[in-house]
Amino acid sequence: xxxxxxxxxxxxxxxxxxxxxxxxxxxxxxxxxxxxxxxxxxxxxxxxxxxxxxxxxxxxxxxxxxxxxxxxxxxxxxxxxxxxxxxxxxxxxxxxxxxxxxxxxxxxxxxxxxxxxxxxxxx
Length: 123
Prior knowledge:
This protein has 123 residues and is an all-beta fold. It is 0% helix and 52% strand. The chain has strands spanning 2-7, 10-13, 18-26, 31-37, 44-50, 56-58, 66-71, 76-81, 90-97, 112-113, 117-122. Strands 2, 4, 5, 6, 9, 10 and 11 form a 7-stranded mixed beta sheet that branches. It has a 4-stranded antiparallel beta sheet with strand order 1-3-8-7, with no helix packed on it.
């Protein structure tokens, strides 16, 4: 099993920044992703990072504003969110893929999930 614990959410004004963290423990994993679920909407892919490095991806709506990274020694992934907009308001989840299978953007291809951290962006 892989245990994931997110932190760093909160309330911020539009244009502000937040950095989310996802601390992992347990078994090794291949990659980590960030997803979000806004009120009344389905959960959607936000960003992806292959744990060994060299592969990153983002959904179009956050490109140029969000940055995913990881600290392998701390087994922690980060999502730096800048220039936040009210439409970024959501519960943000990190998720881990144990193997290089499936699509990096598909939540069904992730094996382990954190409990989520709420981000609220006020206008």
